[in-house]
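Quarterly update, task 2.4: magnesium ion-bound model.
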Amino acid sequence: MKIERIDLHFVSMPLVSPFTTSFGTELDRQCLILAMHGEGLTGWGECVATNDPGYCYETAVTAWHILSDFLIPNILGKDLQEPEDVIGWMSSVRGHPLAKAAIDQAAWDITAQRDGLSFAQKLAQPYPEGPKERVKVGVSIGIQPSIEQTLAVIERHLGEGYGRIKLKIRPGWDLELARAARAAFPGVPIMLDANSAFTLADAPLFQAMDDLDLLMIEQPLGYEDIYDHSRLRPLIKSPLCLDESIHSVGHTRLALAINACDIINIKPARVGGWTESRQIHDLGRAAGIGLWIGGMLETGIGRSAQLALASLPGITLPSDISATSRYYDHDIATAFYLNAEDSTITVPTGPGLGIEVDQAHLTEVTLKKESFSA
Ligand code: OSB
Ligand code: MG
């Protein structure tokens, strides 16, 4: 199908509460929403780059530049057969995976609609078992003003039905927090995410967590480091998970070859989209490591595509995909609810993403819009 037009929206939406990590605080979430039009169909993509380059070097502004000046001109007017086609059309741009992932997502959505398949069904085509109907999810809790408040937030989310708790840590907000959470919630799967705030010299700190029965420690060391993680791993008992460091299939192969991790958080935006994510899934699955899908406070547009990826057979651990109400009072797409009895979310089954985009609300939260035609 010919890619006739692409609309880009620069969106800003208020979060229900501030989200603080080792690299900063978000009050409003800025992102880009991309609509790809062709043959009467519309495919949606969400670019999860935020207002600051804290998680990675991209921001919503750099992604707008890369999309509008390079990626979109390269794909407009092209004949899209399968979602993998866009990989070649985007290969002249080095890096910028978050910008690329928005196009990649829209290409999967629009071709799945054309084929009369859900995003999950299309993604799961190589696997005889097909996609899962429900996927295990957990909640990611930002840094709070005090340990007492953190325990109260954990309790609230457990009450909502979340069965896995992830706590953000940073230097000085680490061991004491983890001990308090473990003491207050003995049987609960708890994990920590450092977002690259520590160094190998902090190994004793992580060793002191050995008796806390943590589900995993996510990305303790440098955002580009793989080697030091391979040195930390044999020194600690908690399973080690990589997030920031894994940008590609190549990084995955390196991490597996040097035993740098027990688990990989596959975040589609970080690796340039769903095609690359599925290849990483296949490598991780073959190697027998733990896999789950990471999040970036997505709207329903991004969340639906995360759910599709989380439905693949090699995803073994709960994913960071929370219900709509966790971040937004009023989202721009169909709401997702937690199945409280088993801490899951049901994977959409309608064509493509299987969601309804609320165009009027999208317009309300759009700060700037541009349309590009072939
Ligand atoms: O490291 O996983 C991360 C949010 C923004 C940037 C990085 C991360 C996160 C989260 C939130 O942990 C996951 C979510 O609920 O979407
Ligand atoms: Mg992380």
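Highlight for this quarter: The radius of gyration is 20 Å.
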